[in-house]
Task: inverse folding
């Protein structure tokens, strides 16, 4: 998933007034924030294979550290512990823990059976990406519902709406655009994207939700 993950972050922000949207975006995408560094280092592996599924040309051949359930639980614990050390809020830390793990759960829904439970299997995947229309319906519905929940009874900043529109346009581009030219380009583009999206989320949300 793509905007499905961000949908969890938007909803989580509304549930936790003490946690910024930027932190929530980092949490729900933490596995994918780490992943490009591992593929660029040659530790984990992905192939560009158009037709691998209907929705994405990527064949996730090996990502046991960042995307196994075991790995996700470790990264989630580290993320939550870091929040507790910085802010000392245990309830928010617990929700952020589940936010990180939610990435693995949604990947299982989306992927074909290539998402590991332990580093080298068994592998799970319900294959939502085998249908472009169904993927679009599911993720767009999640995204719209999360935005509605976030904005209910409030007046989000204009920069928030622009960011939501950008995320949706990036999602549509990923769905219907050409495949990445190389694995290296995929890795660097992913890193650059998060370097823009996360600070923007902080800026869009820096004064919180205005009543």
Result:
């Amino acid at each position: 998933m793509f905007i499905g993950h961000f949908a969890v972050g938007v909803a989580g922000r509304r549930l936790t007034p003490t946690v910024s949207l930027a932190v929530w975006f980092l949490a729900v995408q933490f596995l994918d924030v780490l992943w490009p560094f591992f593929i660029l280092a040659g530790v984990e592996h992905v192939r560009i294979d158009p037709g691998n599924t209907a929705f994405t040309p990527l064949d996730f051949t090996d990502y046991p550290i960042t995307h196994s359930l075991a790995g996700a639980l470790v990264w989630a614990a580290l993320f939550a512990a870091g929040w507790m050390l910085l802010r000392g809020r245990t309830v928010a830390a617990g929700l952020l823990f589940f936010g990180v793990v939610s990435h693995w759960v949604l990947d299982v829904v989306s992927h074909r059976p290539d998402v590991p439970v332990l580093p080298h299997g068994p592998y799970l995947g319900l294959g939502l990406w085998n249908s472009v229309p169904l993927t679009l319906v599911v993720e767009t519905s999640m995204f719209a519902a999360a935005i509605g929940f976030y904005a209910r009874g409030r007046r989000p900043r204009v920069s928030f709406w622009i960011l939501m529109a950008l995320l949706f346009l990036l999602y549509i581009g990923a769905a219907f655009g050409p495949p990445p030219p190389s694995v290296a380009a995929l890795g660097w583009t992913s890193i650059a994207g998060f370097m823009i999206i996360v600070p923007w989320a902080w800026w869009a949300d820096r004064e919180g939700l205005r009543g």
Observations:
- The mean pLDDT is 93.
- The two ends are 31 Å apart (CA to CA).
- DSSP finds nine helices and four strands in the chain.
- The longest strand covers residues 58-62.
